[in-house]
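Quick one: structure for this chain?
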Amino acid sequence: MSTTSLVRLQEQITRCALCPRLVAHREQVAREKVKRYRDWEYWGRPVPSFGDPRARLLIIGLAPAAHGGNRTGRVFTGDRSGDWLYEALYAAGFANQPTSVHKDDGLQLRDCYITAAVHCAPPDNKPLPDEFIACRPYLLQELTLLKQVRVVVALGQIAFAAYLTARRKLGLPVPSPIPRFRHGQVFPLDGIFLLGSYHPSQQNTFTGRLTREMLQTIFHDARKLVGRTE
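Got it. Here's what it folds into:
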């Protein structure tokens, strides 16, 4: 694995302007802000991936939050979803601290790397099909460069589908019929374990569809899987 290549890829992501709708939205949000963050200088660009380049665990999310990653410049940082995610990663030994407030707060991931299907904050948290396609080459490059990955945790059905689509694009085997997303379900995929999890969005956490215990169980299971082989 070339760490230099991975760093260059993230630099390329932060300069991306392929999707006019996403460019306009992320920049508008960064200008207008919200009252509680009016003193922040928003990032307002594509949010790069983050983590250990030799990670055995890869986490795939949907897209940055408008006032989370789009504000702070780091994925799952500065929003409620990140609060839940990093708390669970810390509990399972994949992070050095349980909180993530801004990109210079000292957070380090251990044996873990986090990416997203789309790297810009989308309106209403809903990327369009063409935007997934435009962003997919970045995920394909990451999957190629992250050669130590043994477990993929897909946060939500859309991220789950994005990973399977990326595998097909890379010529990697995908089972037939295609696996259906289920929270907590593990799918062995030719040397990789794919693990589905509900996304720690407020839509899921406020309603009780996803509890802290459920999310922590996902990453304790991932911890056990990273050392296994099929």
